[in-house]
Amino acid sequence: MNARPEQDQADAQLLHAIARGDEQAFAALYDQYSSILFGLVFRILHTRPEAEDVLQEVFLQVWQQAPSFDPSRGRPFTWLVTLARSRAIDRLRATGSRERTAQKSGEEAPRIEEEAADVALLRDEEGSVVRRALAELSEEQRSTLLLAYLDGMSQTEIADRTGQPLGTVKTRTRAGLKKLHGLLSNKFGQPAV
Amino acid sequence: MARLVVRGGQKPRRKFSRRLMEHEEYKELLALEAVGALSSEESRSLGAHLSTCAECRREAAQMRYAAASLAYTVVPVAPPAHLRARVLDAVKALKSEAENVIDIEDADEKSGESSGTFDGGPLRAASKDGTWQLLASRPPLMYGALAAALVLAVLTVASAMLWNRSSEYEAEVIRLSEDANKSRAETARLSEEAERARSEAERAREVREMLGTPGARLIHLAGTDSAPGARASMVFEPTTGRALLLASALPPPPAGKAYQLWYIAGGPPQPGGTFTTDREGGSVMRDQAPAEGRNASVFVVTLEPAGGVKAPTGGKYLLGSAS
């Protein structure tokens, strides 16, 4: 996975140029990441107009906050995904449709993610590595992480939904994420941050 | 062994273990933070700890990295092409607003510098030197009377000539006074322009600040058939209901009328604030959406009796939707 540090460096250079007001660099970053980020916010919000709206907000936020991006504190990809995910979850909570989408996602999300398996494997190497790493987690760990991250459910909500004690949910989240991190670090052959 | 623990400095040991326990507790929160599962209180508390603990910062970055990789489980979806154009346009607008702010700040700095020089050292020192030279060259008092008489004689002769030219001077005075009026008007115009630029910059700041808040939306409203050239941009924060509407090219409303904004969330339109326009049809309105209007996805501006109404009665002038 030698491409990863190179990609990170290229992305960090784009963000650096954006911080200086370079619109071309901004357009390049948009072209590079708009599909994966749009897929993510669409998956969280379940409605296309809301997702379009949030994607626009995310990229405007990228433009405004690029000067505060610090490569020593994480990868550009992590920064972008974290921004997009938290904007989408904020929107989900603000529109009060969390219950509705959480119920919906219970039926639809696994199907979407199942479809994603093949697509992601073909899509790029990093995606396939992540998919394989996720497959090594227990089903409980994987679903707990996805309910929290993609459905914006609190640990208590996950406990209610799965019928597990709160402590178990927290343990699964911690153990699942640590294991995922360990697997990714091994596969990329370096500490992953 | 137990005695050793008790005797070997129980107090520092307890203190250490308490600090350790806190640190361990925070470490337990890191994975939950990365998947966005902490309460805002827990987040704040963890944030304070992270600012002082490099080990937790490192682990937080690792957990966030692992969490962000979950994005790869989702099918990428290409956003529509019009969205790309909209985002790039919005960024262009933000950039030019930012440049305006910088221009004005530069101008402020420069005028600050020049007035500093004017009030400060060089000029003041020169005038002080000049005064000393003048005092030094003043003639002794005994010659004063003679000098005054001489000056009076010269003035008497000159006054006859000057009298004849008084009308010329009068004309000159009138002309100069007209010039002075003109430059006063010019000064007023320039300061009006500066004020306008300053308030535009202030507005740009406000827009940026609002757009930066979570959940804020940027909505474009287009003119209807009643005002095809009119348009508006609106920043709306659904969580707080705060809105800022910037309209342009609206026909100035007739006397007794005003434009009113409406928030539409599926039910009846919820009344927003009223506004009139400047001569060019421009307007800036800060508004607070009623509680029932915070989920609005459609925004309309109608012409209503000044003071506003509870349900729309007049024609639509601007129309926009959040999607």
Explain how this protein is built.
The complex is a heterodimer of chains A (193) and B (323). Chain A contains nine helices and no strands. Chain A is mainly α and 193 residues long. In chain A, helix 3 (48-65) packs across helix 4, helix 6 packs across helix 9 (166-188) and helix 8 (155-162) crosses helix 9. The radius of gyration of chain A is 17 Å and the shape is globular. The model of chain A is unreliable at 105-123 (pLDDT under 50). Chain B is of the alpha+beta class and 323 residues long. Helices cover 56% and strands 17% of the residues of chain B. In chain B, strands 5-4-7-8-1-2-3-6 form an eight-stranded antiparallel sheet, with helices on one face. Chains A and B meet through helix 2, helix 3, helix 4, helix 5 and helix 6 of A and helix 2, helix 4 and helix 5 of B.
Q: Key terms for this structure?
A:
heterodimer; A: 193 residues; mainly alpha; 9 helices; B: alpha+beta; eight-stranded antiparallel sheet
Could you write a compact summary of the structure shown?
The complex is a heterodimer of chains A (193) and B (323). With 193 residues, chain A is mostly helical.
Amino-to-carboxy terminus distance of chain A? 15 Å
Q: Structural class, from helix and strand content of chain A?
A: mainly alpha
What sort of overall outline of chain A do the alpha carbons produce when their principal axes are compared? globular
Main beta sheet strand tally, sense and closure of chain B: 8 strands, antiparallel
Q: What is the mean predicted local confidence, pLDDT of chain A?
A: 83
Q: Which of globular, elongated, flat, extended, rod-shaped describes the shape of chain B?
A: flat
Biggest sheet descriptor of chain A: none
Strand content of chain A: under 5%
Unreliable sequence segments of chain B: 1-19, 112-142
Written as H for each helix and E for each strand, in order along the chain, the element string of chain B is HHHHHHHEEEEEEEE
Strand arrangement across the biggest beta sheet of chain B? 5-4-7-8-1-2-3-6
Helices of chain B, by number, come to 7
Count all strands of chain A and give the number: 0
